[in-house]
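In the design runs reported in the main text, the only information available to the sequence generator was the tokenized backbone. The following block is the verbatim input for one such run; it is reproduced so that readers can re-run the procedure and compare outputs position by position.
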């Protein structure tokens, strides 16, 4: 390949570019110990205090009649049958999620192959069933989808080793630092408690017709959930950075690296987490309020509101894409939200790794794992309600209707619990890509076997982007 072609790809950064983004630094990055974006942390804590005050002032007194029986509102959802159902379904999802980590570590290549084959088989089933029923739209939909998925599988086939290697490294970090899984479930309990608190505190306000009030309370709901999710992203990125540069501080369940990651994320980086979370949650709240408004418009107005909804979804996608990379830099370097975003854009621009960071094979695997866990948990819920017809009696559900409710509730519980684990893996995969882009040498020195495997997959999937000093590392 000519030097001009190389330059056009940007595969060989200049010394100035490398210095600007800190490429090939063997030493661990020193985290900035300054309260970045602290005004957003103050704003978030003030809003949280207001909601908690409103919740503390809420009096859930009253009586409702269910199937001829009077039930106190405060005790309506404390039925032992429901608690048993939720507990067993959650435990099932937890066991399956933990097993998924082990399976993904051992069979990364095979799972990616399955993730590519599943849509093809699904489209064949739809097309075949359409032929059986002789439904034109089903046959056309199935046939077109089959062709699209086959072409897609052929295009990304060479990237299987790349995605599998990234997954294995990320899962190795999580298994070594098992405390990350404990942190993830603690945060999920916090998220659940926040949802209950929010519904209690803001139910009356949400019943008003004011879109302004609805927007503020929806913003409060989404902002807090975004903060919880992004807090997990930053903690994972921080631990992975420690594992990458200083493995002695991140080589067992709950090491110093995890303690430092939690402390730094809840103090110096908390304002940046609140800042980035506010950007994404604002769009989420706008979408919900907009859809509430759209439901009351006429046919012509719905065309306009549909266009607005598409624009909001596009903006939300951009913000979430920016956030998932910016928070990696916040976790590893302690950057502010805006600075982290700028640094990550500059890093990938210097490396010319835009194609690499847009690869979604690992996310596809995690989606199918979440779907599989949700379905198995749903079947567990269906089995529970068939074993005990009165399991939902305390909340007024007729035993004749509880089969479907048990399955759907099990699917929802399974998907939520599985999402915690898969988000954990996704955060680790993103952090692996960033660390490898900045400093492949420490990875080679500390983990030669994993590095060799990863380099083989990367060079096979992206031979041009890996033509620089990364290619000089011997495989």
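Verbatim output:
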């Amino acid at each position: 390949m000519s030097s001009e072609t190389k330059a056009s790809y940007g595969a060989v950064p200049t010394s100035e570019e490398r210095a600007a983004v800190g490429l090939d630094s063997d030493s661990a990055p020193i985290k900035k110990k300054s309260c970045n974006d602290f005004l957003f942390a103050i704003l978030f804590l003030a809003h949280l205090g207001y909601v908690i005050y409103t919740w503390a002032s809420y009096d859930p007194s009253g009586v409702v009649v269910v199937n001829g029986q009077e039930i106190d509102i405060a005790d309506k959802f404390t039925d032992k049958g429901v608690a048993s159902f939720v507990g067993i379904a959650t435990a099932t999802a937890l066991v399956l999620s933990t097993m998924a980590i082990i399976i993904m570590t051992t069979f990364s290549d095979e799972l990616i192959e399955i993730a590519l084959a599943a849509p093809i088989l699904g489209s064949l089933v739809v097309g075949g069933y359409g032929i059986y029923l002789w439904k034109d739209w089903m046959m056309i939909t199935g046939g077109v989808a089959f062709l699209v998925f086959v072409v897609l599988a052929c295009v990304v086939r060479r990237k299987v080793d790349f995605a599998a290697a990234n997954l294995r490294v990320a899962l190795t970090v999580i298994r070594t630092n098992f405390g990350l899984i404990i942190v993830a479930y603690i945060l999920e309990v916090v998220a659940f408690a926040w949802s209950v608190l929010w519904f209690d505190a803001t139910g009356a306000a949400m019943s008003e017709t004011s879109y302004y009030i609805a927007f503020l309370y929806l913003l409060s709901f989404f902002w807090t959930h975004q903060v919880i999710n992004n807090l997990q992203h930053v903690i994972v990125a921080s631990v992975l950075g420690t594992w990458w540069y200083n493995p002695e501080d991140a080589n067992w369940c709950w090491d110093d690296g995890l303690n430092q990651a939690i402390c730094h994320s809840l103090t110096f980086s908390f304002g940046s987490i609140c800042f980035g979370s506010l950007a994404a949650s604002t769009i989420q709240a706008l979408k919900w309020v907009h859809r509430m408004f759209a439901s009351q418009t006429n046919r012509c107005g719905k065309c306009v509101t549909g266009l607005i909804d598409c624009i909001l979804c596009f903006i939300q996608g951009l913000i979430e894409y920016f956030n998932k990379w910016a928070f990696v830099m916040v976790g590893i370097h302690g950057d502010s939200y805006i600075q982290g975003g700028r640094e990550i854009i500059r890093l990938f621009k210097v490396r010319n790794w835009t194609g690499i960071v847009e690869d979604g094979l690992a996310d596809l695997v995690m989606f199918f794992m979440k779907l599989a866990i949700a379905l198995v948990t749903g079947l567990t819920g269906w089995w529970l309600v068939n074993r005990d017809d009165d399991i939902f009696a305390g909340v007024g559900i007729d035993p004749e209707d509880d089969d479907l409710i048990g399955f759907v509730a099990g699917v929802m519980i399974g998907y939520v619990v599985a999402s915690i684990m898969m988000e954990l893996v996704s955060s680790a995969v993103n952090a692996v890509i960033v660390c490898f882009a900045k400093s492949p040498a420490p990875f080679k020195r500390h983990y030669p076997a994993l590095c060799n495997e990863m380099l083989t997959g990367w060079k096979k999937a992206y031979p041009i982007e890996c033509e620089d000093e990364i290619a000089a590392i011997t495989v």
